[in-house]
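pasting for ref. prot 1 ->
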Amino acid sequence: MYTHPSFAEGPKGYSKYDKGPFIVHVSREVSDPSAGTSIHALKFGLFLHQNKFSHIVKDGVKSVGRNRVSVEFSNAQAANEFLSNQILTLTKYKAVIPTFNITRMSLVRGVPVDWSMEDFVESLELPIGCGEVLKARRLNRKNIMEGTVEWVPTQSAHDAIINLPSTSLPNGCALGNSQPDFLQSQVKMLEDLSSLLLSIVAPCSELPYRP
């Protein structure tokens, strides 16, 4: 797997090019994950109101897990400022931007089996203005053998998944001096659900990319 250095620690914030929705996930910092800590959306919404947080859309606070709520802001700046607000730190809350909100996933076919993901990314050419590959990995499938779960390459071992900035999903790419099959996905990024990927990626535009 390849991960761009700037993406290793997760998204730092929304950019001016992101179109939204501007969502931030909040959870309580816990030392023991099995402690059963939870956050209630209504209670956290009251917390936001009492501390005068603004630019939150109507009905924008929702529960997305036992210890996680989603907060939707009306603009990128408000969401970014919320991430670093000291009130959250003092009250032991942790705020992050979901990776799937600012990336899009694409499938590239024809990647040589003996290439590392670093070799693949270095050889990949994207149209100008599409940014850089944030993450790349081989397409794997779940295999259960004698009760043990393994992730193994699909029969199409030449396939690779790449993640790009959400506003820059191109219609095609070039690999060296050739043009591989390129499928673009408008769905949110799915981690480790490789068995579903082929059923949800949609064919890219018929307009070819000319490097």
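and prot 2 ->
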Amino acid sequence: MRLTAALRTLARDERGFTMVTVMSVMVCVTLLSIAALSAAQGDLAPGAHDKSRKVAHAAAEAGVQNYLFHLSQDAEYWAKCTTGAAPHAVNDPWNGTSPAADPRRWMSVPGSAARYTIELLPANGATACDPADAGPTMVDTESGTFKIRSTGVDREDGVKRSIIATFKRRSLLDFLYLTDKETRGPELYAMQVPSRITREDANPTRDLPGWAAANCDRYWGDDPSLGSRAAQLFRGEYVNDAGVAKPFTFGCIEPGFNSGEVIAGPMHTNDELLIDCSPPPPRLGDSIDDAIETSSLGQSTVTPADPKGGFRMCAGSEPVVNFSTTTTPVMAGTSRPRSAPLQLPLTNSELLLDTDTAYRFKGTTKITMNGTTMRVTGRRMAAGSPALVDVDMPIPADGVVYVANDGSCEAYTPVDSAAAPETCGNLELQGDYSANVTFTAENDLVVMDDVKRTSPGSTFLLGLIATNYVRVHHPVTGCDPAVPVTCNSLRGCTNAAGTPTNVSIEGAILSLTRSFIVDNWFCGAKLGTLDVYGAIAQRFRGPVYSVTPAGTEAGYDKSYEYDSRLRYRSPPHFLDPINAQWRLQTFSEQVPAR
């Protein structure tokens, strides 16, 4: 049995460990190491040197497995550098010549004459991992990865082989599409009634959005604490166009994946996915390597897990995806039910510390990118800073642009998307870029028009992070926020002059507490296609399209494609999930061995 297969299996399994599981993994690692080494030592190949090479390689693999085991126990094990609890075989790097005598600690593989040693390969020009400053000295700032070198030796004749292993945390960027909950954000529930005026029977002071905030911020499933979204029901009344109150009941919004829809990349939800019953079924994932992960946090634990769990679907209307029971693979992703959840951070405040003071702004800020420069209208955070009007400045290469609130900021109003006061930390962004950069807003980030690379073939990465909404600008006329019933196409709500059409976004989008949406998605005329090449992560599923009460279409058709570079690289300082586990990303041999 080859240890590389075991390594890949361990690397894929990132669900956290109880002590029983940890001990089981350690036993398995030891047994696998012994088995592989025994097989190598008993190999009947004609050359003894060939046998020794196999023994040395298996020992090097055992070293990688041992390090991965420690990471599974303690996600911060890497930050201890070489100071972890003894015994261990973790060392600073040795160049092979200085000192002349090998200074590295080694560990024996049980039941064999082989042993291994591990070296931490520093990053960003550092010479060694520093436990007092582990991040900058060990983790590559561009890719978010760190590397070790594991060298195995057959002590019978001294043959060595070395493996370079690269580790990366589970990332929000591993997926084209990621949600915490497959329902709408509470504020958006107001759009379910034309007049927007609702009252709950049990609590007349609470409207539908207030009820949704208390009852729909949960997962689908039977777990009484986290799930039970299906059991929630609003009972009350709404006021019709004539001002007459009418009885009204409503459940939590359950967006589905529509007939014929294609998600061209990996997916993850902490919830479950609703599948349209109409043929043809949606296709989830672009290849068998695309993980289609569902965590089903609202469901009671079932052992063993249902191989087709994580999907809410009709009989005979399964999505196009590869289940564990699939006998003939299809060109789609691979379902992974009961995957480990990914918890979104609640704030972007840590990014402020990563931002140079010249790029810290407050209140509504407008930025138009142009290659390596950007034109800014706004005000810096520093006290007494003058207003900036169309000021050109360099894009901070490999840096962050941060827009903070400058006072109070009211919640987003769907029928009045421009209502936010100037004190809101809103960033209005458009243009093209030729630098790696992350833009982040303490409130909303509004895409005013295309946000694209200057040169289509370039490899620059862009991050777009908002604490609340990431919105695509769509102004309308004929919608009076004081009379919300006017905000539909039957009442003359139309696209305003200058509304962008066929918008393209090339970047990684992250809404920490709300959604990625199109302003006024519920009225106006069709806007063409919304192209996203990158990744989208959001707490709630956001709307970008609708069929209006007039029977016409509004908003955008979706065309979302995963940028596979995000598997290995990240926009600068892009946020990680909370308590994300490390995984083995790549695994290759170094020749000659060290």
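The chain has three domains: 3-167+581-590, 171-336, 344-567.
Helices lie at 3-12, 19-41, 48-73, 134-138, 208-215, 350-353.
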